[in-house]
Amino acid sequence: MKTMRAVWAIFLKDVRSEVRTRYAVNALLMFVVTTLAVIMFSLAGEVMSPSAQAGILWVVMFFAAMSGLSRSFVSEEERGTTFTLQLCSGPLGVYFGKLLFNVVLVILLNIVIVVLYLLTMDQFVINQPGLFWLVIFLGSLGLAASTTIIAAIIARASSKGTLFPVLSFPILLPLLMAGIDATKLAVEDNVWDAVWPDLQILGAYIVVVVTASYMLFDYVWKD
Amino acid sequence: MPDVIDQLKLSATGLSKQFNRRKIFHELTFTVGKGEVFGITGKNGSGKSTLLRILAGVLTPNSGSVEFRVGGAAIDPEKVIEVLGYAAPYLMLYEEFTALENIRFFSEVRGLPFDTVRARDLLDRVGLPSDRRDVVHNYSSGMKQRLKLVFAILHQPPFLFLDEPTTNLDQDGIEVVYSLIEEQRRHGCVLIATNDATDITRCDRLLDVTTGEVSEAAR
């Protein structure tokens, strides 16, 4: 119960802090708008396959997550508040509080990305909306789960900006491959049965990453 | 303060720490009991703050162990932060929040209900205006130091760790620190890491981190 209260307190603190400082949101929105504008201008008139459309969508979601989600731990480190948090909350409260914040942030971010993608890409049509949004939801959970633990690991490194995508890419590869495939199938008007194996991979990925993070975080969090 | 704090003891046994190959301190052994103000001294870089961090459980020693006992029972290392208050110049607060918002967060994250009246009392206690609405970023370093004292005593811990507690404080602030130390002495114990001659006069015993010797303080 105490841990649940700590999780909620840290989540609310991060939300309030984000509303005041716009630490991550500004960077994320600028990245999304700029990237989509570049894609829109460079692909003007080109006819893209569903695979390419799904791939580009996931490229934007991946790099947007890379540009903003590490802030959850990096901002604590840069402000010097990591030690303060260590003194008032156990590792589980911190991990799940940060995870919850990243989950909410990445879900909202990916909704914005998909809406802007739909508005700027005429040929991008979602034939299976329910399936598509389920894939985006599971993909968002997977992105948040893996980037939260990686952010905790790299927060104390000197070259955080470089390390984050370098460490993230191999860990996120299974998620990206399943996510791209499932998104393509949802766009192409496939039935649920065709997408089921990808959904299983996405679900299993989330369970494995959250469980591993839960077990490792104590070591990552302490000096 | 809970009444169960009859048998209160902090025991450190054979604590050693080195960073890379640089030895910070070696085989420190001491105990601190209820009602005691225990000073940790040593020249700059001798490891006073490192020792406090190890005792608080946020840094791992190379060897040795630390045990907290409250009411005669050993405290689970995972729960040490519940019986420990810590104030230090390097402890940072959330500068984008007001003092009350900081206190609210630190209460909630510890699982305590946030009580505005008590929060304002604590601010008054350390000499901070309780009706101030600007964020901590606009505070002077002395005001931030006073707010860190609130962070340390918010949950009424039996063990109070103070690292250079009078840093950045004016004479009024220093008096606040000394009155907190005397108040804490009645309920628990205090560990002070300092080289300040006046702070040292408040201590009962002193540990020299460099030599590992514990001696009675000249009061």
Q: Any overview of this molecule?
A:
- The complex is a heterodimer of chains A (223) and B (219).
- Chain A is mainly alpha-helical and 223 residues long.
- Chain A is 84% helix and 0% strand.
- In chain A, helix 1 (2-21) crosses helix 6 (91-120) and helix 3 packs antiparallel against helix 8.
- The longest helix of chain A is centred in the middle third of the chain and has 30 residues, at 91-120.
- Chain A is globular.
- With 219 residues, chain B is an alpha/beta fold.
- Chain B has one domain: P-loop containing nucleotide triphosphate hydrolases (Rossmann fold), CATH 3.40.50.
- Chain B has helices at 48-56, 99-109, 116-125, 141-153, 171-187, 197-200, and strands at 9-19, 22-33, 37-41, 63-70, 73-74, 84-87, 159-163, 189-193, 205-208, 214-216.
- In chain B, strands 6-7-8-3-9-10 form a six-stranded mixed β-sheet, with helices on both faces. Chain B has a four-stranded antiparallel β-sheet with strand order 2-1-4-5, covered by helices on one side.
- In chain B, strand 7 (159-163), helix 5 and strand 8 (189-193) form a beta-alpha-beta unit.
- In chain B, helix 2 (99-109) packs across helix 3.
- Mean pLDDT of chain B is 92; it is low at 1-5.
- Chains A and B meet through helix 1 and helix 5 of A and helix 2 of B.
Q: Quick check: average pLDDT of chain A?
A: 89
**What is the helical fraction of chain B, as a range of percent?**
25-40%
Q: Summarize the helix and strand pattern of chain A as letters.
A: HHHHHHHHH
Overall pLDDT of chain B, averaged?
92
Query: Low-confidence parts of chain B lasting 5 or more residues at pLDDT below 50?
Result: 1-5
Number of strands of chain B: 10
**CATH top level class name of chain B:** Alpha Beta
Give the % helix of chain A. over 70%
Q: In DSSP terms, counting alpha (H) and pi (I) runs of 4 or more, how many helices of chain B?
A: 6
Strand ordering within the main sheet of chain B: 6-7-8-3-9-10
Sketch the major β-sheet of chain B: 6 strands, mixed
CATH level-four homologous superfamily name of chain B:
P-loop containing nucleotide triphosphate hydrolases
The count of domains of chain A is 1
- Remind me, CATH topology of chain B? Rossmann fold
Radius of gyration of chain B using CA atoms only: 17 Å
How much of the polypeptide of chain B forms β-strand, as a percent range?
A: 25-35%
Low-confidence stretches of chain A: none
N to C succession of SSEs of chain B: EEEHEEEHHHEHEHEE
β-strand number of chain A:
0
What multimeric state do the chains show? heterodimer
CA-to-CA gap between the ends of chain B? 28 Å
